[in-house]
Amino acid sequence: MKIILTHEVSGLGTAGDVVDVKDGYARNYLVPRGFAIRWTKGGEKDVAQIRRGRKIREIATIEQANVVKAQLEGVNVKLAVRAGDAGRLFGSVTPADVASAIKAAGGPDVDKRRVELGSPIKTLGAHQISVRLHAEVVAKLGVEVVAA
Predict the structure, then answer these.
(1) What share of the chain has pLDDT > 90, as a percent?
(2) Residue 37: pLDDT over 70
(3) Where is the signal peptide (predicted)?
(4) Residue 62: how many CA atoms within 13 Å on its side-chain side?
(5) d(CA 34, CA 37)
(6) Which pTM was predicted?
């Protein structure tokens, strides 16, 4: 089945790419989660719009990515969340929470889809996260989760 990717899917492509995948993968995973739309002849207009949006948001060169990496690694990020007496959180910290905390701490604007937590953050304390800025550039960032 031919589909148009609306988000970056690792191992498949980036937003705006037209790819051919198995029917079940497209029908059961990509389309319901909003990662892709079905390809149609009229969908070519959508491809141009998606690519324009991607070009605005993405970091184009490795040099730009290294500059943003230096900015990120210089930011001290504290994230205040609700927690119980034993230091366990009510819920967990999401990539969107981390992206907004980076922005609030004076760091660069980071897309939440670029934040990689590894495992869910469910306790107070210092945690290491990574932000994939470019295919070859990953910024390591320390986030301190404190009780609100």
Answers:
(1) 39
(2) yes
(3) none
(4) 3
(5) 7
(6) 0.66
